[in-house]
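Milestone M4 deliverable, item 7.
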Amino acid sequence: MTEAIDEYMMQQLKEFEKKKFVCISKGNLDLGETEEEKQEKEKLAEQMKVVCETVKETLGDKVEKVETSTRVVNSPCCIVTGEFGWSANMERIMKAQALRNNQMGGYMASKKTLEINPTHPIVEKLREKIIENKNDKTIKDLIWLLFDTALLSSGFSLEEPSGFTNRIYRMIKLGLSVKEKEGEEDITEELPPLDEEEKVEGGEGGEVEDNMDEVD
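Output delivered:
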């Protein structure tokens, strides 16, 4: 249901043959879990509490809350909206309106929840890194990458595509152990260094220290 008319139609079409329609991209999704599944979910939520707190602290007001979920299976996380907020498709439609209400848009579009998959290897490894050293310089980069990719996979658009691509380039360079050539423009100069003492060559021969707090 990606057509513009679908969003307006489903607001009025509540059920079919006594079966209520439910948008799975919104919160409060009931998958009919058993008692054992609910207990296991609570156990995982407690284990991932430190991850949820760290992610929320990093993303700030970009998300309303961060919580564990059994909604996703193969992905490490996803973005869902409030029960009465806009879906990703509706947000895209409203942003395209020439005479849109920005005040309403800011309110409706801000109700995003990041749900993480507690059994995914990426999330498990992230938890280990947070417990080992919460102030690790790579953790913030990883969290923002997870958030941006979750936005894309959930149907939302990126507010700052350049920041996302720079983080991707940074990770590729780290994976390939690529060092900057002399005189070459550093495409990751706005990103935080892995080591606190690492410096990046400036445009006129000076040295500019990356500031982790200035990266969004």
